[in-house]
Amino acid sequence: MPAALVYDARDPFAVRVRFGDGGEDEFDRGTDDVALQGPAFGEDVPDEDGGVEWLLSRDLLRAGLTSPAGEGDVRLWPARGGLDVLFLQLRAPSGEALFELSAAVVGDFLRESEQLVAVGHESEALQVDDELSALLQGGSDPSGH
Questions:
Q1: 92 has which bridge partners?
Q2: pTM of the model
């Protein structure tokens, strides 16, 4: 099953993982976005349009490259024996799925995302004051989220 990893610097702590038909083409990529296609295999987690998107922590994805990470609905762990495999287990009320991702692709993706927002500088990329001001004034989220 195809998967696309998407990072948007306007949401610096998050990585979107898109499984299914849509892939990279469904995302509007600006200069603050990174999107990479990579292989994933496992159970299908369908919705009406044939794909599904999960929101993961960038830190969780990074931690899962070297050791087991996560608890609850999202868990990641590297394969043993130096294989280029990162396991991603997702659980939802509708079921669960286990995917195999290329650890090299995920590592490359994270390095590209870190060129947009360096590790430890995510809070600086957020425009919390602008968003809070807009919300208090009854407006919408200025970032478009």
A1: 95
A2: 0.66
